[in-house]
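Bit of a strange request maybe. I'm writing a small parser for structure token strings and I need a real example to test against, not something I typed by hand. Could someone generate the tokens for this chain?
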Amino acid sequence: MPLGLIALALGSFGIGLTEFVIMGLLPEVAADYGVSESAAGWLISGYALSVVVGALVLTAATTRLDRKKVLLGLVVLFIIGNVITAAAPTYSIAMTGRIVAALCHGAFFGIGAVVASSLVAPEKKAGAVAIMFTGLTAANVLGVPFGTFLGQQAGWQATFWAIAGIGVIALIGIAALVPDLTTDPGNGAGNGAGNGTDEVSLRRELGAFRSSQVWFSLAITVLAYGGMFGAFTYIAYTLTEVTGFASSTVPWLLVLFGAGLVVGNWIGGRLADRSIDGTLVGVVAALIVVLAGFGLVAGSQPATIVALFLMGTLGFGTVPALQSRVMVYAGQAPTLASGANIGAFNAGNALGAWAGGVGISTGLGYTSPIWIGAGITAVGLVVLLIARTAATSTLPTVTAAPAQASADV
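Reply from user aminoacidic:
Good idea to test on real output. This should exercise your parser:
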């Protein structure tokens, strides 16, 4: 395994920790700044919205540049954002830090996924993407519980100082371990040309969006992943109010969920290297069954434990295939489409969280986000089946040039 993948995974670990650890520290943040918890919650929502913007704008703005240098610049931006958050004397400055850190999120994962796939043989590309995303799953399993504990014991700012430190280590790792790269031949980056080549490169990247399959892929990401995240957003309420677990056990149950993410990411990457759409159809269909089953058995503690693990496994089992699919159908211009798909993940997060909240606010109960999530995911499966039928070529044909994956659709 190329050591550069480990450096990329460490970067994704830090970014994932930045995104999710704040959820466990909202009470401390709210008390420190004297704001309501709902106002503190905008540190989460504002981050997610900024990810979508950064995924598109920064990826487009840097598409003509050397990818390794872009990744290093994005990690520097990540460090700066977390330092601002850790040192912020006011709520508004803390929000600024969150926005700065979030801007690098989508572009890092989007460009990083392209770089990761370029470090391995064609038949291992989806697996390489999965290795990079292992950092994100590890952030949920290990980083969030320990980051929350550190923030509760030493002040929430200590957690963000620690995250900035992780960013420094990732910066050194990427500089040392990721080989010098340029974009695909003909893209115009890194060749020293300065007369029109840059415009051709950006135009090539934007041209990927002429593919209906790229748009199908983005829609599938929003729906298939958003349904799972909608169920997860309110899982603490389900576990305590429906299943009857004590609130003190919730962090450990979330570790179990995170373990499912790790397993699903690994299995999903291996399966996607064989068949991207085949993996998605099977995993998304299984996820719908698990979500519906979870809604039925949420009153049983043993059954809930099993369902929680399976929800994490199947929910994140889609990620390598979802990311690989959009890169494949983008052809020779995968960078901007890859970044857009990271934005689609976060758009799905927002959609699922909003829809689940509507279910609760209208009196449907704390299992309603699970049922609503199953419905959203079912729509994603329908879109996937339509996309698969509409595809006019197989994956090997699409990837005959610099391939992003080699498995049949």
